[in-house]
Every structure is written in C-alpha cells, then in structure tokens.
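re: ur question from yesterday

yeah so i grabbed the chain u mentioned. its 456 aa long if i counted rite. heres the sequnce exactly as i have it in my notes:
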Amino acid sequence: MNPDLAAALSGLVADPDRVLTNPQVVERLSRDFYWYSPILRKQLDGKSADLVVQVMSVDEVRDCLRYCFANGVPVTARGSGTGNYGQAVPLHGGVVLDLSRFDAIEAIGSDGVAICQPGVRLAALETAAGNLGWELRCYPSTVVKASLGGFLAGGSGGIGSVTHGGLRDFGTVQAIELITMEDEPRLVKHEGDAVHEILHAWGTNGIITRIWFRLAPKVRWAQCAVAFDSFDTAYTFSERIAVSNEWMKRLVTTFEWPIPGFFSPIRSLVREGKALIFFMVALDQLDQLQDAAKLAGGEITHAGAFEGFRATPLLSDFTWNHTTLWAIRTDGAYTYLQCGFDPVGARTQFARLKERFGDEILFHIEFMKRGDGVVIPGAIPVVRFTTETKLNEMVDFCRQIGVSVANPHVNNVEGGGRYREDNVQLLAKQRYDSRGLLNPGKMATFSPAFASTKNL
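ran it thru and got these structure tokens back, copy pasting raw so excuse formatting
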C-alpha cells in the first residue's frame, strides 16, 4: 500500500473511510470470477491494486481521475465483480475505482427509459421498474448482485435476449455518459450508435457515470422445466418455441445430460439420463406450453408462476454462465466456452463436435435474438479442461466448422470476441485515455501516446 497515494485520495472523497487499504479487502476487491477459466487463474492469481476508492458522485470520479492522471497511477473500474474474464483485475496495481455505491436510479420515464448511475444492482432496477409497469429487457444470471455499469462494460446478454437481443441490439442502451482520463477529465455523453464505442470495453476507455437504459413493458411470467429422453428431441422442441413469434418468452435454455445432474439444489426437477429445458413464458401461455411439451414427448417436472428473484426454485440461477458454476462445483476440471451456432446447420455442428470431442464438450444452449431479428442457438458449452493446447484445439475446430467463439480464456477485449471490427472502442481509448492508464493491459491493440507513468 502506498501511504502517500492513500492520503491524497482520502482528500478527494467526502468520507476518507471510503479509501480502503486493508490488504485482505483490497485483494478481494481486485478479483472477479476469472477463476472459471484455468488459463486466467494461472495468469491473474495474485494480481491486486494498491488500494480501493469507493466513489459516489461524478465529482469524486473526476477528482480521482485528475489526480491519477497527473501522477501516472493506473485505475481499474469495478462494479459488483461478477464478470468472468478478469476485466476487473488490475494488472499493474494502482487504484480500483469501486462504483458499487454510486447506485441511484435517477428516473424511470413514461417512455420506459431508466436513467441510472452505474452501480445500481440490476435486481433493484427490475423491482423499481416493475412498480411502474416496466421490466429489464435482458439481464445476466447474476442479476441479484450484478451492477448495470458492469453489465454494459463487460456483459453481453442473458435472460430476455431470446426476445429482445443482447445489450448491443435494438437500442437497449440509449445513451452512456462517461468521464475521460485526461489532465482535465471531461464528462462526455454517447448517444445512439455512439454507445458502441463504450459497450464491452471493460472500462478501458472511460469511467461510466450515467446510463440511459431502455426497458420493456412488464409481463406476468411463468417458469417451466421439461425433461426429454434425448438432447436431440429437447433441442427440437426448444428451438420450435424459441423461433416462433407465437410465444412470449424470456428464457429458453436446453441442457444435455449430464449437465442437469449438476444442479443439486433442484434435483427433484431432474430426470436421470435425460435432457432438460428451462422456460420462462408468459403466464397465460403456460398451460399451452405444457400441452405442447407433452405432445412432443416431454415430461413436465416443474411449472408455476414466476414470483420474482426470490422464487423457489429460481430457474435462471442454473442458466447462462451459472451453469458453468454448477459444473465446476461438481468437478473442478470443467470450464466453458461461449459459442454461436448456425441456426440452420446447428445439428450438423453438434454432430461434428461430438464426433471430435465426445463428452469433453457438453451442450448448453441459450437461444437469443441477433440484431437482424434471427433467433440463434447461442451456447455456453461446458467443456472438460485437460491442457491449454487441447482447449485451443477445441476453439479452433469450432471456428473451422462455422461455430463462432467468444473466447473467455483471454484477458483482453479483442480476444474475448466482442471487439468491434470498426475499432471504435480503440479509437475512443485513444481520444479519452491516451496514456493508457485505464485498466492497462486489457486492450491489446492500444499503444500509449507516451509512457511517462509511474506504475507501468
């Protein structure tokens, strides 16, 4: 810990107790869920900031960035730390800027746009929106803990994406305001297509301070779990529901056996040896869905109204990347990939992967709508890790057969597969952080304009 740095920053926030220097606390707040990846675990274990500053206003963010710019101190933004790629892990020490207490919901308009500070928890936003007849368009499985700013900076999509697409689609993010890392930090607003300069940039090109986030009209939802004898029949039925405009849905997730066997808290919903589908559909379509599932050969193992994030069971706790967590808890050799299958040729791609890798890859399909309106079988397959070479072989083979991969085992924006080909994220970093002090090392294509920093 640098006492001079701590003393200087303590004078820049209203409460000096929000400058955290306890080594155990600093270490904890310098981590996220990167350990899902055995590759990142090896790279990032032991990395830590010098201290953490909990900011609660635009002025505090600006003052901290001004000081850190003048003194060449790296700054890594942190929301709730629920990311999986090490984006919140400081590679070069310095300051973790903790935005979790900068968390007000400033307004929810009659147009369904929420204006929020970055630290607001997504579950809190869903609750507040619901009181006014709105709900989140999409959210991660970590919704109870995840922050909105962190979701925009490092997330992609989630529950709701089967209807509303991901964060980059259909104008879900209307505008973002951020503060730059310069001699005199500026407050800059990005609207419309310009938000793509900041989305999924891991806080490398500005500190998000305000978000205009589009919501959807509130729906009364139901949960349903259906078991099928085979993955093929389960996939066929889930695809039918996912792609049809007949159904109002928030979640369609299909698991190959033995993945359902990993879900120890909900074993009563699982049928030994069978594939499983989790649905969220409009409550007034639940009976119709059950009838259709039975006609298709499925067994209903759970059905009922969705009563919010305290529902028991909460099926979304076992979907998206929470599935990986349950796999790792069962066997520490499991990790995951993030894939997109061809909506027409997915079955052929499944067969080729199984022929090549067998049970080293287990299918876990999350249907989601692309920006062009096509619903695709997105996937977060559970894979058994043996060596880095074998994992890279799996990634390469996926790409050879037309399966896109956003690689969760690399610690930079570009390698993770969400980097814009038009380089707008990089160009924004060059404008707003020319010295490369924001989350340094995480944008591999960036070169600092000059390297007069003390910690790099």
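noticed a couple things. Residues 58-70 form the longest helix (13 residues). also The CA atoms of residues 343 and 376 lie 5 Å apart.
anyway ttyl
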